[in-house]
Design a protein that fits this description.
By secondary structure, this protein is of the alpha/beta class. It has seven helices and five strands.
């Protein structure tokens, strides 16, 4: 951590601290919705096997008319209004709102002094042990490491590390920024983010 700079809220452009937190909530809601597996499915009456014969005569039995034993009112019948894989959970988020959400997430980290800027993240050994030592030097519970371009050795070092997550600069989003306890970001990526605001 010797070459790391702790970013405070005063170091960020003024616009970062003026963003309403609702933007972050909307983005995270849309992000989690897009990650839903959408595998819940039930069979409706047309998908259940059998039920081709009329169970009893239309008239004369004193019972309500019935055309199939696969109707939702019978045991073994189809499910009415059950979940379907046809459902689309996508929620639209505008580019501006994505940007505002990321700005607020970074501002929150800076306000709590959990945003660290380093010149570069490079682990030439490719060893997980070295990556663990690097992350441990920040004394944080879990760390999001943002590198402009991920090289093979650094990727190998971080890939099995549970207490950190390595992403490229263009993959950084508000959900990841908010989910991790602290952020370690390369100077070039940080400057690009602050200049775009």
């Amino acid at each position: 951590m010797s070459n790391a700079t702790v970013i405070k809220i005063s170091d960020l452009p003024k616009e970062f601290s003026e963003v309403h937190p609702h933007n972050l909530w909307l983005y995270c809601k849309a992000y989690e919705a897009s990650n839903r597996a959408n595998t819940a499915q039930t069979k409706n009456r047309s998908a259940v096997r059998g039920g081709g014969r009329k169970p009893w005569a239309q008239k004369g039995g004193g019972r309500a008319r019935a055309g199939s034993l696969r109707s939702p009112i019978f045991v073994g019948g189809g499910v009415a209004f059950g979940p379907s894989t046809d459902r689309n959970y996508f929620q639209k988020v505008n580019k501006k709102q994505k940007r505002l959400a990321l700005m607020h997430a970074l501002a929150e980290k800076a306000a709590n002094e959990k945003l660290f800027v380093v010149d570069s993240v490079l682990l030439e050994s490719g060893k997980t042990k070295d990556a663990r030592e690097y992350v441990g030097s920040f004394n944080q519970r879990d760390v999001l490491v943002v590198k402009e371009m991920i090289d093979d050795k650094t990727f190998m070092a971080f890939r099995n590390l549970q207490e950190s997550y390595l992403v490229e600069g263009n993959e950084l989003n508000a959900y990841l920024a908010a989910a991790y306890h602290a952020i370690v970001i390369e100077k070039s990526v940080f400057e690009k983010l602050t200049k775009e605001s």
